[in-house]
């Protein structure tokens, strides 16, 4: 996303699982924040004209042979205030002549922080003691010249600064919910130290994207939009429609791995509510033939991604004079698919990012590529997208293909569709649908012994997954009431032929992902 004229804060990513969360916190404060790789050059950094620079955390030790480092003298030549978080603090200390050593034991979890420097602007307006969240194995044992300790946990340095050079560091993670006053610390950095005014919001970015789309598509070019009926693609379609109107044709594809009745009901809803130019394509057999016998989840995603593109290109030929494909790619899709912004490990590809073929006849328009899900919902409301669509739980592009562990068959699709429908019905009946981020059924590739009607059975296992989250980057398992879980389990076992056991997934992200594949 281009943010012409907006003040911005840059984060250099050293591989922390929380880097994107830092960006969200800064954006929530009304300041546009962008993530760049740790090895960004001084010249490239300065070209962004940042009002502030944040060095993220990361899993490395500064003494590791392949530890990520910034370009020499970047910290001094950033031309803006710098805040190091966790590994960022350690790197700052190391690069500027301090000393970092391994801790006797890794500090992970809550700790009590004591502020020892009352005049520090980073902790302005905060109590002298506060709860913070730690996750590190090294600690600073000697400060660089000109730095003072501003806060500590027990007797260890946990925050320092050099006010004259506008350099600050904290060992804890202010961006996570487990540091209750962390948002105020980040606000102090961007407003009190960096001097930002707060001139950005997702809604304000709409017209910028509209102008960018018009510039990209020109005055005559036609585009097609891969529409799934979910939040992301629907908002992307509405945004492009505002820019170029009926020069966009939305293609809603039945890929054979949608939920029960989804193709027909979603197609009708989108046509009625958004007034878009929509064309439905039944390509289920085409997708299922391509997926036959495929077990590896990455192959599933890439096959589905390539088949989507084939369908879109066929439709583009039918329409004629189409040069662009609109996709509802979000920031988390990009981060999880490709390590383009730092040393983070690729977790999985998404069909609309990592699953794209190398050669395509259509050029991409991805107006939401730098946004988080909650920001997309804000834009959707501004564009008039119905709440029925905006409040939907996320549904993966590869659909039920990544909720069936193993190869895809019509029988397995029948089972997971029926189980998913029952879960949805019970959540809505219990008025819990809106309180969870995502909930779905997963069909496991195992069978277990059971007893039905005094007879031994040996049938399939369904896992229920329900999580709470804000943006999908981190998530916790939902504490659903036991009576709801009991009804879901009872109904699935009694109503879905071929299932005799239901289990509930109580894993959080990280370390697990939300989807199983």
Question: What's this model, at a glance?
Answer:
The protein is an alpha/beta fold. It contains 15 helices and 18 strands. The radius of gyration is 25 Å and the shape is globular.
Structure, explained:
The chain is an alpha/beta fold and 517 residues long. It has helices spanning 19-28, 42-47, 74-77, 87-95, 182-193, 206-217, 231-244, 262-274, 284-291, 297-319, 331-337, 373-382, 387-390, 410-429, 482-495; strands at 8-13, 32-37, 52-55, 82-85, 99-115, 129-142, 148-153, 156-162, 167-170, 222-227, 248-254, 278-282, 322-326, 363-365, 438-452, 455-468, 476-477, 499-504. The strands form three sheets. A nine-stranded mixed beta sheet has the order 2-1-3-4-9-8-7-5-6, with helices on both faces. Strands 12-11-10-13-14 form a five-stranded parallel beta sheet, sandwiched between helices. Strands 15, 16, 17 and 18 form a four-stranded mixed beta sheet that branches. Helix 6 crosses helix 7 (231-244) and helix 7 packs across helix 12.
